[in-house]
Description:
Elements: E1 3-4, H1 5-11, H2 17-25, E2 29-31, E3 34-35, E4 41-42, E5 49-51, E6 54-55, E7 64-69, H3 86-89, E8 98-99, E9 108-114, H4 117-124, E10 132-139, H5 145-150, E11 154-155, E12 158-159, E13 164-171, E14 174-181, H6 188-195, E15 199-208, E16 211-212, E17 221-223, H7 226-234
Parallel strand pairs: 9-15
Antiparallel strand pairs: 1-4, 2-3, 2-5, 5-6, 7-9, 7-17, 8-9, 10-14, 10-15, 11-12, 13-14, 15-16
Amino acid sequence: MEERLQKLISAAGVCSRRAAEDYITAGRVTVNGETAGLGQRADPERDDIRLDGKPIARSEAFVYLLLNKPRGYVTTLSDEKGRRTVADLVKDCGRRVYPVGRLDLDSEGLLLMTNDGALMQHLIHPSQEVSKTYFVSVYGDVSSAAERLGRITDLEGEPIRPAEVEVIRKTGRTAHLFITIHEGKNRQIRRMCASCGLTVKRLRRVREHTLELGDLPLGTWRYLTESEVKALKQTTPTENRTS
């Protein structure tokens, strides 16, 4: 059956659909030896589809993994600086899977990885405002940390939705917090804390959209259950917003 090329390339686990569109526009994709055009359709059962001269494999079954990322790993499949990547942690899954969103080098916790390009693009698109909850250990003047963090609506000139902040424990100049945000700005929670004079000692994502980290050991992964995959696909993030 014919499908748009970008969908076929994404479904094969090569890259996201958006990246596939860029490859097609750049003239890197061919169909039956001819340079393909954006919007072109093809049948993977009949046509020879290639990226940079290499055949695109037929669509494989989608894989959905939940990884408990440790510190010291970059959220990418390869790194020009030779640092350890999350791909190293899931290489035994037998498929090429991609991280959905990011966790910086010093952060840990829940990271969804999949070869389902359509779902990935849906979840990371800014318009979806997927909720993400983090356990955050901070140091500094914690007397009114929750209130100050919850009032931030502008981050260095970028508008953000107010975070929901819950104090778990507070002792002297240290506090443990649950912080829920709705965007994926670069190092957003660390920047929020810095603007309040707080130093982040530990940052761990424990929930994203409908997924929970639970007691998954650090540095390990598991397959999502059928019900978890179904919830990701059926629930629209905007329906779960708090008022």
